[in-house]
UniProtKB/TrEMBL annotation:
Transmembrane segments: none
Pfam families referenced in this protein's UniProt entry, alphabetically: DDE_3 (PF13358)
Superkingdom: Eukaryota
Protein name per its UniProtKB record: Tc1-like transposase DDE domain-containing protein
InterPro entries for this protein: RNaseH_sf, Tc1-like_DDE_dom, Transposase_5
Lineage: Eukaryota, Metazoa, Chordata, Craniata, Vertebrata
Domain Tc1-like transposase DDE positions: 4-108
GO MF terms held by the record: nucleic acid binding
Amino acid sequence: MLWGCFSAKGPGRLIRVKERMTGVMYREILSENLLPSARVLKMKRGWVFQHDNDPKHTARATKEWLRKKHFKVLEWPSQSPDLNPIENLWRELKVHVAQQQPQNITALEEICMEKWAKIPATVCEILVKTYRKRLTFFHFSNYRPLIFLSGRTCTIGG
């Protein structure tokens, strides 16, 4: 499993999650990867973090951790469509991996890391700019994230 994040300024960190993720592990990932990504991407105050309604994301301990870190989180209604723009990046990564046909987990991880690092900032910027239109279409018009950082896990390979 992979966890990654991005903003309109480009891709953030991508890491391999080697075991079944728990709430504690998720908060560690955010602490060790989301915060450094926000710094490297030069995210200024006021950015909005978006993740889905996975139980690890909505757990009381996670919400409290995010609150203590002063994160603005885009609230996501339950049973809503998954509109997270990072899904577009996961899809591209999966297509690339399928074309490369890695023979082992090490090669798979290497391919993913290399491809992720080469995602153009322009692609990320377009995903963020069009995100507002998708939210409006699905009647989430109260959400106006101007500065945005999205993170999510993805399973690649089989």
